[in-house]
Amino acid sequence: MGEVVQFKPRPDDYARALRQIKRLWAEGEVEFVPYAQKRMKERNLLPSDARDIIRLGRIVGHSKGDEYWRYEVRGKLLDGGSASLIVEIAGPLLIINFYPANRRRI
């Protein structure tokens, strides 16, 4: 018999990553890290904005964090603007940063 190898999803498979991000959000497996909480407060962004971005947004980029892949999810806000979330899938969904779109890239 052949050797069993673990399947490692490709980080650029955005459809799969977005499905996993949405599933973790729906299951409540989400943590806003302290840095993201601070930035949200400074930028007048709410958890409901993050919900809308995850629900209706799309992944526009990825990069390698310290341990996990990071994804930039961009979407519209209710006020008509747009914003991005930087997230890591690390067991739970970690919200790393949250900012109005076009301010920085990952």
Write structural notes for this entry.
This protein is of the alpha+beta class and 106 residues long. Helices cover 30% and strands 32% of the residues. It contains three helices and five strands, in the order αβααββββ. The longest helix is centred in the N-terminal third of the chain and has 13 residues. It starts with 13 loop residues before the first helix and ends in a 6-residue tail after the last strand. The mean pLDDT is 87.
Which descriptor suits the 3D outline? globular
Spatial strand order of the main sheet: 1-5-4-3-2
Q: What share of the residues does DSSP label as strand, in percent? A: 25-35%
The total strand number stands at: 5
Low-confidence stretches: none
> Number of helical runs?
3
In whole angstroms, how far apart are the ends? 43 Å
Radius of gyration: 14 Å
Structural features:
five-stranded mixed β-sheet; alpha+beta; 106 residues
Give a quick precis of the structure.
The chain has 106 residues and is an alpha+beta fold.
Strands, helices and their partners?
Layout: H1 14-26, E1 30-32, H2 34-42, H3 47-56, E2 58-64, E3 69-76, E4 82-89, E5 93-100
Parallel strand pairs: 1-5
Antiparallel strand pairs: 2-3, 3-4, 4-5
